[in-house]
Amino acid sequence: MTSDPINSKFIYKPYCNQKQLICGSGQTAIITGWTVKQSVAKHLNNEEFAVIGNLYSPTRGISPLIRNLLANPYVGFLVILNATKEDKNSGSCECLLDFFRQGFTKGKSDLGRDCWVINSPIRGYIDIEIASESLEKLRTSIQCQEATSIEETINLVKSYSQKEAMEPWGKPLFFPEEKKYPTLLPGERYGHRIEGKTIAETWVKILHRIKTTGTIRPSQYGQWQELINLVAIVTEEPQDFDFPNPNYLPIEREFIDDYRSQMLDDAIPCEGVKYTYGQRLRSWFGCDQIEQAIQKLIAAKDSSRIVMSLWDVQKDNNNDSPPCLNHIWLRIVDNELSLTATFRSNDMFSAWAANAMGLIALQQYICDSINEVGSEDVPTVTESATTFKTADCSKHQTSSECINLKRGPLVTISQSAHIYEDCWEYAERIIQTEYAKILRSRDFSDPSGSFVISLQEDSILVEHLTPGTGEVVNCYSGKSAKQLYQQIAASCPALQVEHAMYLGTELQKAEIALSSSQSMMYIQDRPLKKSNFE
């Protein structure tokens, strides 16, 4: 621990997350939860506040906030804006309030690390490196007040700014943070594909891929580990969602209903709330894109033009917080409705699973809506078709006929797929406990098909079969494993890695049997042994 002389001027100097904060020269710190911090800052003069910042997570966000307050002991007031549905869902503001109201005790994090646990029904941590006496000093020295609206926040801050300037309650304190750096393996820089049956399975595979081969890069929010253009495919997520038991996902089932609403429903513009995806899809551009997509697919189920856009070219290029989800594309193939979503930036640890569940809820809603009407009863739809503002399926009931459209895969394309530094350890723990289980329980089916290997006189014969029906689509013949695997690799570039490695092993066994002077017998998937017909 080190300390600096007390500054004679009130100039807020963040110890952590400097780029995420709006700094002033007053004595009141403002926490805005999930509310856009600029919506508060625009109503205040610089000298009326010390700092304004968001608090998204009680387990990740409270420690850096406290480190910053300890480094700026002239801050005497703290206003916590706890107003929105997002604030209630995250519990971050409530947990911070409980730190000041109820204190903390020594305990363990979910990873088993020593930490200070906030005395709150909402799980929240503080780094154990911060001295307990410093935390107690902070709790008793700062006047903390909850606000439930932007207006109340502004009024509180302005009233505190009228008070006489206070002396700092201590010297600036800085507690070193333990830095950990992952071991990286070489890998492709661009373009990665991951597939799983459920969101939970796919998510663990995503974490493993990023933590294994992702590049560590700086971002405006600190370091992250990143893959560029990661395609994730979820094939069999149940309609009511599969939560593992015990649940290792970063969200709870209770959160999904609210998030589903944010994806499906329109929202009234509200100061401090940036937008919801539902608002962007339902009314932002003056039309209901979800209803237009439904009507277009009913009219032309083979269309490849079903596009929904969330990027506003007039506003988002200069927006401090533009939408991460930019583009949705729908397609019906073999009576399955697939949904492809493109994210410009995707927090794969904290956000991807919730994003995927919200998108599947949207996909299921569109699928159900189409099934409620027969296509012969619906006229061709133009861009000027009537739009709707709520997720009410009843408006589609023009026919009792159901076309039995099925919900197909969800595909997400995350152009920047990243895990923030403060989640690396959490991700590693999940990989250690869950990735091996997934590998043990997976099946070995390959969309590229299967291969039957046999010896025919003086050569190795490989028959390529279609998945499912087992029809022969190609044959390869040669005397060496290398000759054959090169032919197969050229003809089947999408062959799964593990399948390719298996083929290499079997072909090498076949070559040994073919060239052996001891009359070895080759049977696929069995050990080599001497022939009984010597």
Layout of helices and strands:
Elements: E1 2-3, E2 22-23, E3 28-31, H1 38-41, E4 51-53, H2 62-70, E5 77-81, H3 85-90, H4 92-102, E6 104-108, E7 114-118, E8 125-127, H5 132-141, E9 143-147, H6 150-161, E10 173-174, E11 190-196, H7 199-213, E12 215-219, E13 222-234, H8 253-264, H9 277-282, H10 289-299, E14 306-309, E15 325-333, E16 336-343, E17 346-347, H11 352-371, E18 406-420, H12 424-441, E19 450-456, E20 459-465, E21 472-478, H13 481-491, H14 497-515, E22 520-521, E23 529-530
Parallel strand pairs: 3-4, 3-5, 5-9, 11-13, 16-18, 17-18
Antiparallel strand pairs: 1-10, 2-4, 6-7, 7-8, 12-13, 13-18, 14-15, 15-16, 19-20, 20-21, 22-23
Helix pairs in contact: 7-12, 8-11, 10-11, 13-14
Give me the CATH fold name of the largest domain. Answer: Thymidylate Synthase, Chain A
Task: Give the structural class.
Answer: alpha/beta
Helix segment tally: 14
Our count of domains comes out at: 3
Unreliable residue runs: 1-8, 378-402
Helix share bin? 25-40%
pLDDT average, as an integer?
A: 88
Query: What is the correct CATH architecture of the largest domain?
Result: 2-Layer Sandwich
